[in-house]
């Protein structure tokens, strides 16, 4: 069962005040849950250089802006929380997650990274000496991703000063966060200039979520998306672009994400129950799904699919 939190943030309020109204308490029965902390592609929304009317409106109205893709994982019974992706918006996202688990430490019990593209790891910089000066935050990453952070400045300074502690992940090998939570990475094809790319399976007390914010075309993947959806309870998948030709004057084959139109065609035989598990996320600023009242968004929802909003709660208990 999915619930959505109301995000009513007045333009011009401070970051702290914004965080205070970012989230409301989830259903008291939910012992473990994911919360969507951002839905935009790496450059956020509105994106730098965008001169469209909707981008100008989002610049003027905080309620229309969107943070970069991130999930929070919260176990209320254990008093623990983890962050998936370290985005440039990590400060506001951590404040928001802490609203859902008040009275606990500000920093998460760990951070999971999918890959080395700008929206997914650069928030680590705020853990360093110029900002919070964190101590030993576990950062879970695959081998190439770990080497990238360890061997390249300024990220290497985080390791050297022990602001972060790199924890090794292995493809298809799950790690237990506690007795009732498991996270398993799995390799997906993507533009792996600096690191491999993974999705995550997140298994809770009774329910399972799958998170694939970035992937090349589904046909390049060894996995079977339909089977993944059938075996999980919540499946958050790459919806960077809605259709081909969305970015004018640019060869979109250079950024080969699955178009939402392609994904819908691939999944057209899914029954209504399984369609309801699918949640589109990671929207480029050109994707009309990022705008709540777009005709395309209404079309997708009418077909039975979900579209991620910041504050969406996904129960795992």
Description:
Residues 6-26 have low confidence and may be disordered. The longest helix has 11 residues, at 90-100. Helix content is 23%, strand content 22%. The chain is of the alpha/beta class and 317 residues long. The radius of gyration is 18 Å and the shape is globular.
Task: Write the SSE topology.
Elements: E1 2-4, H1 15-22, E2 32-38, H2 53-60, E3 70-75, E4 80-84, H3 90-100, E5 111-112, H4 118-121, E6 137-141, H5 143-151, H6 155-160, E7 164-168, E8 175-178, E9 181-187, E10 198-203, E11 208-212, H7 225-231, E12 234-238, H8 260-266, H9 272-275, E13 278-281, H10 295-302, E14 306-307, E15 312-315
Parallel strand pairs: 4-5, 5-6, 6-7, 11-12, 12-13, 13-14
Antiparallel strand pairs: 1-15, 2-3, 2-15, 3-4, 8-9, 9-10, 10-11
Give the overall shape, derived from the CA principal axes: globular
Query: How are the strands ordered across the major sheet?
Result: 1-15-2-3-4-5-6-7
Runs with pLDDT <50, length 5+? 6-26
Counted beta strands: 15
Mean of residue pLDDT values: 90
- Count the helices. How many? 10
